[in-house]
């Protein structure tokens, strides 16, 4: 039996355990920053923002943004922080310390209310921990690629308590493969990471599904709203691509720029307390049907704009949950409008998450992962997993058709 045959299973277990520690650490730190920013002890971020004063809502994100900008200014003075996915797939050396520090700054910024996803930080930290753990093992370049991608997916799975979603993120988005070796590695590492992080996350899911009567027509409706999901997903992608500066900003202007973005975020949260953070608050009120048509429309407009504002200022963060929240807001607008003006009785929660799955499929180009991730977040009736998959596959198919049409027209 070769040394590699023995060491690879050990590496899988080690990576899963370290990813769980990374997920637990980022979750704990995120909650600490949220509680300090909005001065609350119990409940969700939405509760904390809603109970805080207008002054704290405005100044908390501004101060957190300025501090994050100062930290990034110090970190980037010598070199940029590379993309994790590019580093893994191109078999480059992983700058562990630089990537870990960048992850902690992301947690600081998102915890203080920035409109960015928190999933980027645990992915980077888990990959950095995993790379350190397997550094002395006899592994091939492909082994290392699978393990680091699995670590990143496991970090995502740990913070959201979605082991299947974390595993498919690694295989379908980072590795783009269904190979049994990669899939088995990703499933085991993600399951271990979720278990290790459980004392901190308590295996709580982001959303609480309400009791709702659903119609079989939801399958038809899922396909019907695909064009809306494609339009929103493409618009979101293009806005973020325009906003993201290349190369990364390195000068002292990061401090006032991100601080001002935080101030704009804070002022908007005085009227819309759902806006701060990664998008969980918007998903919560969408599932709870706690929005009006006007409120949902405002969130649909402001969430991507504020996310783009932080990127334009030089900040870095995840985009999965902001895209998910934008899709959920769009689904809420559609459901609430139809119920109010057409006399229908559609489930706002179901339509919100269906549209969210479609948007996420467009932005990530992974429809099966998008459907499973949304379902695992909310844990609605299993029948809705089929609905989410229909919406995601239809939206993804329309995006592919649109791209082929555009390419043929350009040729």
CATH class of the largest domain: Mainly Alpha
Q: Which CATH architecture of the largest domain would you pick?
A: Orthogonal Bundle
The CATH superfamily of the largest domain is known as: Clc chloride channel
**Level of helix content?**
over 70%
Largest sheet: none
Order of helices and strands: HHHHHHHHHHHHHHHHHH
Q: Which structural class matches the secondary elements? A: mainly alpha
What is the CA-CA span between the terminal residues?
A: 55 Å
Per DSSP E runs of 2 or more residues, the count of β-strands stands at 0
Large-scale geometry: globular
pLDDT < 50 stretches: none
CATH fold topology of the largest domain: Clc chloride channel
The domain count comes to 2
Number of helices: 18
Radius of gyration from the alpha-carbon trace, in angstroms: 21 Å
Average pLDDT number: 91
Quick gist of this model?
The protein has 411 residues and is an all-alpha fold. It is built from 18 helices and no strands. The longest helix has 36 residues, at 3-38.
Account of the 3D structure:
With 411 residues, this protein is mainly alpha-helical. It folds into two domains: 3-198, Clc chloride channel; 216-410, Clc chloride channel (Orthogonal Bundle), CATH 1.10.3080. It has 18 helices and no strands. The chain has helices spanning 3-38, 45-51, 54-75, 84-89, 96-111, 120-133, 141-160, 163-174, 180-201, 218-224, 226-243, 254-271, 280-287, 293-313, 320-341, 348-364, 367-378, 383-410. Helix 8 crosses helix 9 (180-201). The radius of gyration is 21 Å and the shape is globular.
